Amino acid sequence: MSETFLNIADIFFVVFHSVLVLFNLFAWIWRPLRKWHLWTIGLTLGSWVVLGYWYGWGYCPLTDWHWDILREKGVKNLPNSYISYLLQRLLGLHLPDQTVDILTVGTTLTALVASIWINFWRKN
């Protein structure tokens, strides 16, 4: 693959995956996005658990595809967690893997509970 394609694909994945993470965390707040949020967070957790059964818990195909691009670019020693990667790449933060995993699962489950509550039990 050409260097130009790899650079464009790398930027695409950083932007798209970052937007998806933010959407999964916060889209339940805005009424027009609440149903979409429930779907995307459900698909995300489904990937982590269902696909994770075969590929490793927390599996995300977007991460897998991005890692392929980065390896093709010669990047080595990629972290297990895409959130760790984003924190390192975008903010220069190097947190322990367990800390990132706990924060990732905790904030995702909090967003899921908020989404379920606001979509099904809250009186609008």
Question: SSE layout and pairings?
Answer:
Elements: H1 3-26, H2 34-55, H3 61-72, H4 82-91, H5 97-121
Helix pairs in contact: 1-2, 1-3, 2-5
**Measured distance between first and last alpha carbons:** 51 Å
Please count the helical segments. Answer: 5
Structural class: mainly alpha
Q: What's the number of domains?
A: 1
- The residue-averaged pLDDT reads 95
The percentage of residues in β strands lies in under 5%
> How big is the Rg?
16 Å
Give helix and strand order, one letter per element, not per position: HHHHH
Question: What profile does the largest beta sheet have?
Answer: none
Low-confidence stretches: none
- The dominant shape is globular
Number of DSSP strands?
A: 0
What is the percent of helical residues?
over 70%
Provide a descriptive summary of the structure in words.
The protein is an all-alpha fold and about 120 residues long. The chain has one domain (about 5-120). It is about 75% helix and about 0% strand. Helix 1 (about 5-25) crosses helix 2 and helix 1 packs antiparallel against helix 3 (about 60-70). The mean pLDDT is about 95.
Kindly list the characteristics that best describe this protein.
124 residues, mainly alpha
